[in-house]
Amino acid sequence: MSSKEGRGAVEGLGAGEGVELRRKPTINDVARIAQVSKKTVSRVINRSPFVKSETRDKINEVIEQLGFSPDPQARGLAFRRSFLIGHIYDNPNPSYIVNVQQGILDALYDSSFELVVRPADRRSPTFLSDMRAFVERQKLFGVIAMPSMSEDDDLFALMRELDCPYVRVAAVKLDEPGRMILVQDHEGAAEAARYVAELGHERVAFISGPPTFRSSEVRGGGFAAGLKSQGLTLDPRYVRQGAYTFESGLECGESLLSMKERPTAIFCGNDEMAAGVYRAAHAAGLEIPTDLTVIGFDDSPLTQRLWPPLSSVRLPLRDMGRMAAERLLNPEAQESEDDSDPLTVLHPTLIHRESSAPPVGVTPKKRTTQPA
Amino acid sequence: MSSKEGRGAVEGLGAGEGVELRRKPTINDVARIAQVSKKTVSRVINRSPFVKSETRDKINEVIEQLGFSPDPQARGLAFRRSFLIGHIYDNPNPSYIVNVQQGILDALYDSSFELVVRPADRRSPTFLSDMRAFVERQKLFGVIAMPSMSEDDDLFALMRELDCPYVRVAAVKLDEPGRMILVQDHEGAAEAARYVAELGHERVAFISGPPTFRSSEVRGGGFAAGLKSQGLTLDPRYVRQGAYTFESGLECGESLLSMKERPTAIFCGNDEMAAGVYRAAHAAGLEIPTDLTVIGFDDSPLTQRLWPPLSSVRLPLRDMGRMAAERLLNPEAQESEDDSDPLTVLHPTLIHRESSAPPVGVTPKKRTTQPA
DNA sequence: CTGAAAGCGCTTACAG
DNA sequence: CTGAAAGCGCTTACAG
Question: Fewer Cβ neighbours under 10 Å: the N or C end of chain A?
Fold first, then answer.
């Protein structure tokens, strides 16, 4: 509110406190009132270091006074790049999507970026051309993709061709560290395996997701590795291939539970399939966890709606979204100071609820904590 | 591909088939090649009727040939209005959100509009100023809101002040017909009531949503009206106020089921609360539907994960999103030809599953179909 | 460290 | 029915 601005505030604008325009203020208003060129205002907006600090302060004061906020459309036009972040996904699980979006929005909060959502079907014949049109038309600032979309190498080859920055979140290292966030599904599955083994289960089953999701193999691999670390092996007879759907979980569950030597514990590639196993157990007259231990993956809200509440490997969905967005907005932040791998890694954790117990007649042994 | 364009396609561009620019074509390229002014091209883009049809055809041909698509940012800047639709919501139910978004995207498909998502908290002290900044900064084309966001009169007063078009989807007539989509929650709840009455239930309970959602009273009112039509009354002793959450459903369920004369049927304001009632019934050692009939509302995926599968009133979420977006994009479409009310109305329907049965010892009577 | 000119790709008056 | 000029609100070279 320095009085120097008296002159700048002519043209019907009152000086000091009440400086207010009827229309939204533009960079020209700021420049005029601060008595500098719009180019200098632009420098302040874009945090150029080449502005005298007095000048910067004066401009910032006027910006605040006016409540000026640069028009993202105009900036985008001049920059040849918009301030829109695209979230491309094909995951059918609503709570997964909404949580990830929430994380992205956390990172975008108070920025001038907006989140544009774009569900898409990788199998559609127009998939790639649709994505090309989307990115080109909107001149997207960048794109964030979750599994299984993030696993589509053709898509990201296209993004590189279009010069569109992206971040892929996946359970497998698929790209340069700067372009992805790695979620260690492997670890989470291994933890589930160790837990099941510690409870004393030996006839242990696994229901995998579909082969079109890389996480299917990763979760299966992690589970097998976890069992192995406890001296068990994952018997192929106890492995079923599901499709990450409730129905497939039900089918695989029925198949497993009708075996002569049925498993006493089932690890499911996700919670939806675990819900299917619950249904199959119910139909077979088996009680969870007394007769059957079930562990899920995702830790979706469903876990607490089922009875008994389902133990599940929690994916840090919100963090995944937030970190992906942060990486997109600050690509330089990834240049680590030292030589360590700048790859961002996130870790799932097993959430214990009431769907697990030792197999009938077995007292749980704590192999890892109590050496025999 | 008329050969007249030979001249237009100079500057290193091959004529005919392979006309291709290295950069994205602009309105100037189209104008030059079609040998008209860019203003005329603009007229074609904007479907102005004042273009000779030959001229229009020629221009459209060039547009197609070049694969030209106008830059939404540049148009937005000139129009002083973007091509972004904001989806503002506070509903915590992910499947609700995702389904509505899918509907909105259906309507936006192949348009140059994009969907920008914006969860927000009505109770936040900065709520209105945040919304103002969002709308002003992005110069939103329009906004779509679902309950309870859609019920916030202050928000839409602001939208009118900002001259931002909007569509409110709600269970109550809150605005002019052109600015809203009405969903008859009342009807769906009444249908549930009639069904329960026909099964022979007389001790019938209702768990409502929170008073901050208008749908809470509407669903309760519809249910009471439906019972009344069957000669029953909704006894206030059997009414509980929940919060549309699983936990609140559990609490209210426990409260109802611990009554000396406990209800034999419970209608829940949404599926989440119905899941809570399932849990309460389980804890009380009651079996659904033998000992207790439960009906939900929303018809979320949860209905099929619960055991037994939950009967529920289906909300046409995807249609709600689609119609709201269509109304926003074609405000003129609502001017009905005749004098009939142009208000768009959608109707929920009861989906029968296995959570309902006659009360113990009662043979269901078909009051509506079979007059005694 | 700062500014005048030109331009991003479109549309709005205004002419004819 | 069609076009030349000016402008939307910003930034990029280019000077100084």
Answer: C
Q: Calculate the CA B298 to chain-centre distance.
A: 12
For CA atoms A204, A209, A211, A214, give the dihedral sign: negative
SS3 B351: strand
DSSP code per residue over A212-244:
TSHHHHHHHHHHHHHHHHTT----GGGEEE--S
Q: Which residues contact B265 (CB under 8 A, 6 or more apart)?
A: B196, B199, B201, B203, B204, B205, B292, B293, B294, B295, B356, B359
Q: What are the backbone dihedrals phi and psi of residue A130, each rounded to the nearest 5 degrees, phi first? A: -60, -45
Residue B308: asked if its preceding bond is cis (omega within 30°), the reply is yes
In chain A, DSSP finds a helix count (H) and a strand count (E) of 13, 12
Question: How much is the pLDDT for A2?
Answer: 35
Q: What is the pLDDT of residue A319?
A: 96
| SS3 call for A121 | coil
Residues with CB under 7 A from strand D: A 23-24, 26-28, 38-39, 41-42, 45-46, 68-71, 74-75, 77-79; B 36-37, 39-40, 43, 49-52, 54-56, 74, 77-78, 80
The pLDDT, as a whole number, for residue A364 is 52
Among the listed residues B282, A135, A33, the one whose alpha carbon sits nearest the alpha carbon of residue A41: A33
The β-bridge partners of A240 are A207
CB under 7 Å from any atom of strand C: which residues?
Answer: A 36-37, 39-40, 43, 49-56, 74, 77-78, 80; B 23-24, 26-28, 38-39, 41-42, 45-46, 68-71, 74-75, 77-79
User: Minimal Cα–Cα distance from A72 to chain B, Å?
Assistant: 7
Is the model's pTM score more than 0.85? yes
Q: What per-residue string of b and e applies to A352-372 under the rule 16 or more CB within 10 Å gives b? A: ebebbbbbeeeeeeeeeeeee
Q: Report residues of chain B scoring pLDDT below 50.
A: 1-18, 336, 338-339, 366-372
What confidence score (pLDDT) does residue B372 get? 35
- Confidence (pLDDT) at B6: 32
Question: What are residue B241's DSSP bridge partners?
Answer: B208
Tokens 């993030």 locate to A150
- pLDDT value at position A332? 63
pLDDT average per 10 residues of sequence, chain A (372 residues): 34 41 82 88 88 86 89 92 95 92 94 94 94 94 95 96 95 94 97 97 97 96 97 96 96 97 97 97 95 97 95 97 94 54 89 94 52 37
Give the one of A69, A74, A246 whose C-beta lies nearest to B77's C-beta. Answer: A74
Quick check: A115 and B112 CB within 8 A? Answer: no
Alpha-carbon separation of residue A326 from A113, A167, A338, B196 (angstroms): 12, 10, 20, 52
Strand, coil or helix: A296? strand
Q: Are strands B204-208 and B142-145 parallel, antiparallel or unpaired?
A: unpaired
User: Do B135 and B164 form a contact (C-beta atoms < 8 A)?
Assistant: yes
pLDDT of residue A255: 97
Phi, psi for A203 (deg, rounded to 5): -90, 90
Closest residue on chain B to A79 (Cα) = B73
